[in-house]
Write a structure and sequence with these properties.
Helix content is 41%, strand content 23%. By secondary structure, it is α+β, with helices and mostly antiparallel strands. The chain folds into three domains: 62 residues, Cadherins (Immunoglobulin-like, Sandwich); 99 residues, 2-Layer Sandwich (Alpha-Beta Plaits), CATH 3.30.70; 52 residues. The chain has a four-stranded antiparallel beta sheet. Strands 1-4-5 form a three-stranded antiparallel beta sheet, with no helix packed on it. The longest helix is centred in the last third of the chain and has 53 residues. The protein is elongated. It starts with 9 loop residues before the first strand and ends with a helix. 9% of the residues are buried. This is Cadherin domain-containing protein. Its main location: membrane. One of its GO terms (cellular component) is plasma membrane.
């Protein structure tokens, strides 16, 4: 707006944003996300700008924002207080763009969550960035990390001019992903299934062993009965003869 005074003072706002997935800086018009976790796709935002003069003039435009599932965000760790970094974030962005030779977008500036109560006392600040090449294609995170390592000394030298003190710029390496509830449930179910399978196999083996034992006992018992029957046939009479056995022999003949 070429006007001066209140007529040139602009205020930006989002029109019809009931989901609160995005927000806008009313002074600069910068749009940023609030909560788009798990959402992928293109969102169309209607932005209104109004001057602050008498009989405010307004105009609107539609902005498309694409959210993808890429992980090409790199965190640069600076040994500076967050409030100092925030005051100089535009210069930090300029230095990174100059040394990386890519377009740099500041995604977030934050510090250790455990130190939130002492916001100005922590000397470690994280600057999350994502970069795009000259054709506006997102640069893979590994390429950004490699270039940052190559330009580390140059970046630190330029940052020292801004912060007027020694500056270290490191790359935050992402820790191993914590186990998700789904993964934990899968592991627990797998363990339970394995235990159930082992228990079933033990039961089958025990049942087979018990059946075999019963069969052996049955055979021993039958053998004993047969032996006892033969012994009864061979019992001698009062005179010590084997008449009963002879009788059985004649019957068989």
């Amino acid at each position: 707006d070429p006007d001066s005074g209140d007529n040139g003072l602009l205020r930006y706002s989002l029109v019809n944003n009931p989901t609160n997935e995005f927000d806008i800086d009313e002074n600069t018009g910068q749009i940023f996300t609030v909560s788009v976790a798990g959402k992928v796709g293109t969102f169309y935002l209607e932005v209104q700008v109004a001057d602050q003069g008498t009989g405010r003039l307004t105009t609107r435009a539609t902005v498309s924002v694409t959210v993808d599932s890429s992980f090409n965000v790199v965190a640069v760790v600076l040994n500076q207080k967050i409030n100092v970094v925030e005051r100089n974030i535009a210069e930090v962005k300029r230095i990174l763009e100059d040394k990386l030779a890519w377009h740099v977008y500041i995604v977030d500036v934050y510090f250790n969550e455990f130190e939130r109560k002492a916001r100005s006392s922590t000397d470690v600040t994280y600057v999350k960035i994502t970069t795009f090449d000259v054709v506006n294609k997102e640069v893979p995170a590994e390429d950004v990390k490699r270039k940052l390592r190559e330009q580390k000394s140059n970046v630190e030298a330029e940052l020292e001019k801004i912060f007027s003190t020694s500056v270290t710029a490191a790359i935050e390496e992402a820790p191993a992903d914590a186990a998700t509830p789904e993964l934990i449930a899968t592991i627990v179910l797998s363990v339970l299934l394995a235990c159930t399978l082992v228990a079933f196999l033990v039961y089958v083996l025990f049942a087979m062993k018990r059946t075999r034992k019963h069969e052996q006992q049955y055979l021993v018992k039958k053998q004993a009965e047969i032996t006892e029957g033969i012994d009864n046939l061979c019992i001698a009479d009062k005179n010590g003869s084997l008449k009963s056995f002879e009788k059985l022999e004649r019957m068989n003949n």
